[in-house]
Every structure is written in structure tokens, then in C-alpha cells.
Amino acid sequence: MTATDAETIELLTRIRKDSPLIHNITNFVVMNSSANILLAIGASPVMAHCQAEVEEMASIASAVVLNIGTIQEDWLESMILAGKTANSVGIPVILDPVGSGATRLRTEAIKKIMEECSISVLRGNCSEVLSLGSADVRTKGVDSSMSLSDPVVEAAREMANEKNCVIAISGEEDCITDGDRVFRVSNGQPVMTQVTGIGCGLSAVTGAFCAVADDNLALATAAAFGFYGLCGDLAVKTSDKPASFEVAFIDRLYSTGSEEIEGQLRIEEA
Amino acid sequence: MTATDAETIELLTRIRKDSPLIHNITNFVVMNSSANILLAIGASPVMAHCQAEVEEMASIASAVVLNIGTIQEDWLESMILAGKTANSVGIPVILDPVGSGATRLRTEAIKKIMEECSISVLRGNCSEVLSLGSADVRTKGVDSSMSLSDPVVEAAREMANEKNCVIAISGEEDCITDGDRVFRVSNGQPVMTQVTGIGCGLSAVTGAFCAVADDNLALATAAAFGFYGLCGDLAVKTSDKPASFEVAFIDRLYSTGSEEIEGQLRIEEA
Amino acid sequence: MTATDAETIELLTRIRKDSPLIHNITNFVVMNSSANILLAIGASPVMAHCQAEVEEMASIASAVVLNIGTIQEDWLESMILAGKTANSVGIPVILDPVGSGATRLRTEAIKKIMEECSISVLRGNCSEVLSLGSADVRTKGVDSSMSLSDPVVEAAREMANEKNCVIAISGEEDCITDGDRVFRVSNGQPVMTQVTGIGCGLSAVTGAFCAVADDNLALATAAAFGFYGLCGDLAVKTSDKPASFEVAFIDRLYSTGSEEIEGQLRIEEA
What is the ipTM of this complex? Predict the structure, then answer.
């Protein structure tokens, strides 16, 4: 068994045993699917966005997942409160910059969250993530919105160092880096982009993997991506059409264990 | 045919014939599934939370279902307005105390609703429900968060008398009591806890059963629990994995009739 | 091949090729299903409701879809801002008057939107749509809440002229008119009324068809209705129960192409 296979199985086993509470402040579109995705892998999801309770909720959680789709100003304040609480109690914070770059509100929201909170993992697609980098990073990312070219990897690595967090870019091939180690993950299926909330669900799952990880969040994130993509690879055998694929995929998140994982992860360290 | 079989079939028949309008003020996670669950049993769901319309909506409804997951302050005010309207027009109010005990906001929200409105049925899991009882009730409920031990039944019965409402506790075995009669229901499947919104959906279904009941809301609630659990028992034969189970379950809520019900309900009066 | 078959195939082909961005401000219940429905036909959905971003979002979109289910005051302001932006950049605005006539808030919301914005297509069921007409229109619509009688068609035609928009009424048989041409569509299945969000999804799909249409929005709307209903006709062969029907339906929106469309649309021009 490879080291990444063993690590993935170990983290998944811990999630199923400990049911870590994952506190999500996420968008209206994916609340249901993110909750079901977290339940399927064995975690305990809670959605809570009201300023009056987010600190209390984050303080009893094992990870906080922030997602800015359908953001509004008061939710942004709640995200910052939850993020700061997570920082103070020492649990990971995952940030999903949905639509960053599309409107000023979203771009500014992400910047404000990253200024006020320490983020553990920033997970999005290539254009969303690189829109948040310095001019130098953005230049490297231009015209690379889907493919994992060497300049994108280099931009991600620089950004991880700049922001002091794990940068996790989803795409045909995924790239996860903490600025030092770089993982490429090629599990996953194109139909996953045709179902809303699959990307947001991966941010939530990354939260669960990081919640039970000892230390190495880049490796835990790569394990989350590999496992998630593998469940897609298995589910597409049941259906390659989006709605029935989603059903099969969530079933696979629930039922996939060490036997299916071993030898099937396509995680490579660069 | 037993009396509970006959009562369950009678109430379900009325729901399918009259399509009672069930006004839900519920959390963002389960709005879609609660609407589909209500449609499947033959009721007419409406979701409306704005203070400017909740009184009007409640006044044309046949039951009001309040659920505090993802609560925020202005929604709490709307819940109280809807509850008071329901009280004044004489329709049942179901209250689902999602996460009560987890944060002050939620515990206080439930207390405020129960102070200002007359609740017909309080439905939740054991820890949620008993967190709302007096010190004496909470003591009896300690260490009984899942199993339906005699002290839990006794605590529920006391609480029903204290609060003057039906207490309905979901668990491996369910307990429904109005302080006088006690029903135990053992239909239902463990996978139902692995799908988000199944519990909240039961609160909505309880609303529909109570909407068409003549008087005995404890019996109507037990009928709702028995029917709902039975649909789970039937659906698990199609799939025991969460996403495909949910599809099969909602299909069963739609298609299950007197033939499947007769002799299959496991409702016992203590 | 009939002209409507050809037009429907042409518009669907454009959607799948161009992936038009459809900006939805819609209700909490259907956000997930509307997003999945739009993805399935090949469009790019975005949900954004915050006043701080709706103008920017609408200005980069190819159509705006407004839906007043679960409306609240600040969302109404956002809808008007998005509608005005759409008008100024010249993209279609679809309006879905969910629950119009049920509460003053909803009836007034629709009136305000229609006063302040130019609507391209008003899509709803018969009672919702006719509740918004003049006294003369409402009288013609009385007692015709489901069936497409001649007085309803006449009322719709008058209303289209009054409001200067396409009136699209969903029912057993649908009626689409711009005041001049009248289309009747009889694809579709009764089970579609037993799944929440199917009607709202049709408004979103109408947005996508209008986004890629050259000019004739009544025809584009009829094409959207025909295609959508046909996917229902095909899906019901897989299942006539609501939850599994919904899965099959969304799969069909994704997979149905010119071969299935040709000769199967039941769109007639009166």
C-alpha cells in the first residue's frame, strides 16, 4: 500500500469513528447537499450563520468551512467571527471562494476574511483561486483556467507561501500545495462539474479530513481530493448522467472503504 | 385491523383528499426536502418566513410547522407571529427544536416561542427535547440521549404535562405522549439518521397528520411516526445507502397505502 | 421536421454550445434544483441576491430570472435592481409570481417589479398569472384555475398586450402568448406537479431559451415549455413516483437531443 493510500484510509477511518462536527457557513444552493455529503462520509454537519451563535458553534466544532456563494454583508461578519473563533481554539478553517473575481462583493469578501482570519486551506477552481493572488500570481495564471500547467502549479506554490495556507485547486487534474510539497490528483470525472454543489461539497469534505489530521494539512487535503474523486470514478460506473450520478456518488461516499481505495487513488507528489 | 392501523389509514386518506396547506418556517437546509416530503404524502406545502406575510399565510393554512435550524433573530419574530396566528385560528403548531441545547440562541429561541405561543406538538430527538424540560426532567433524561428507557418516558410524560403539549421524541424507538397516553413506535431504519432533513420532514408530516385529525393529537402524531417509519422500512428494501434510500423513501411516502400499512405499523400504547 | 421542432433544437444547441450565464434571484426552496436543471440543459446558473452585487452580476449575464417564493423586502429591492440592469443591457427578464394572490406581500411585490422593470416573460400557473391582470382579465380567468379554456387564452392574450410581455401559463395544457401569436403546449406529466421546484425550474429554463433566442420570445418560450414537458414525458417511462421521477427528469434534460425531440413536441399555434 502506498503512503497516500494508507493516510487516506487512516483519516477516513477516524472520520467514521469520531464523527467530527463540521461547522459550515455556506451558500443557500448547497446547504442540503453539503450536509448529506458530510453525513455520507461519517462526519456531523451543522449549518449556522447567525452572528449570535457562530462563535459558540465554532468553539464546539472540529473544523469550520466558509463558502461565499450567495454572500450578504451580515453573513460575512459571521464568517469572520467563526473564523477567528476557529483560529483561537486551533481548528482548521477551509475557505471556498465561490465566484471570486466575478463581482467586487465576492472578491472583497474573500480578501477581508483572509485579512482577519488565518485560513488553513483555500479551495476553489483555478480562476477563483488565482484571482486572489498578487499581480505576479495572476499573471502566471492567465489563460490557464482549466488545465494544470506548470505555471499554474508555480503560481499556486507562490500563493501558498504568500498566504501561508494550503492552496487547493480543483480541475481536470487537481493541485494541492502548502508552498513546499505539491500534490497532483487525477481522480474524478467530468460529470462532477454538471452537478451543483459538488465543488462546495469537496470543501466540506476537506474540512472533515483536516479536522482529524494530525498536522500535515496538504497531505490531508490531497487525501480528501483523492477519496472524493475516486468516489466519482466509482459512481460514474452506475450513471454518467448528472442527477443519477449525484445519487450514486453520495452512496459511494458512504460505502467506499479501504478495499476500494487501495491502489485506486491517483495522487502524485511532484 | 388494529385501531392504530385504522386511524393511520383514515388520516392519510384525508390528507390525500383534502391536501391541507402546511405553512412551514423552517431551516435553509431542509426546505426542499420538507416540501417534497409534504407533496409526497399529498399535502400542500408553503414556505414563507417574512414578517409581512406570515400572519396572512398562517391564517389560510391548516397547520404551522416551526423549525429553528439556521435560525436568525428576524425569523424568530416571524415564527412567533405565525404561531400566535395559528393559535388564534385554532390550527395545530408543530415545533422542531433543532440543535436546542447546542447554543444559547437556539435554546432561548425555543423558550421564547413556547412562552408566547401554544405549541401542539414538540418533536425532536431525546437530547433536544429534554434540554427544554425543568431541572427534574433534565435529570431524568441524563445519559439517555438515544435509548427509550423508562426514565425518558417518565420525563417526557412529565414534560407533556408541564408544557401542555404532545411530546414526541424520535429515536431507535420513538416515544409520543400527551402526558396521559403514551405511544411507543418502532418502525424506522438507522439509515434515516444518515440523510439530512429526515427528522425535520417528520415534523412537517406530523403537521399534516395533526391538520386533519379531529382531536387526539397524540394518536395523530403516533400515526405520523408509524407511517413515516414504515415508509423507511419499505424503502430500505430498495437501498440501504443514504442518497438512493432518500429517493426510495420519498417515493414510498407517495405510494404507500392501506395495503402496505395494514399489519405493518409497530405502534404500541404503553 | 416542423418549424417548432427545428427552432427548439436550434435553441437547445445554442445553449449547450454557449452555456449562457443565467442570473437567478429565486426562492430558498428551489435554488438547488434550479441550478441543477440549468446545468443539465447546458446553461451556467448563478444565484446572487445581495444588493451590493446584483447589478454587476446581471450585467455579465445573458438572462435574469426573478422568482418571489420566500420573498422578503430586501430581496425585492435586489430583484428590481437586477431587472433594471437587465433592461439597460438588453437581456431578457423572466418573472415567476410564486404565490401571487395568496398574500398581499407577494401580490404587491410582483406589481412593484412590473412597474419598475420591463418583463420579457411572466411564467406561472393560471391563478397566479391571472391574479395580476386587470379586473377584466381576472373575471375571464375565474373558475379556470387549471384548464386551458378559451376564456383563459383570451385573458392571457389581453394581459400580454396590457403588460407588453409574453404570458406563459403552465397547466395540463400550457398557453404562451405575446398578445399576437398563441402557442398551446401539451407535453408534460401530472407527476411534475408533485415535485417542488419543477415549475420554478421551467422559469429558469425559459430564461436560458430566451437568452439565446434572436427575437421571438413567445416562440422561444413555447420551445422551452415543449422541450421541458417532453423530458417529463420521457422520464415518466423510468418512474412515475416523484423522487425517482425527478432524478430521471434531470437526467433527461441533460441527455435529450434532436433525435428524441423530432416529432415528439406537442406545440400548436392557435
Answer: 0.95
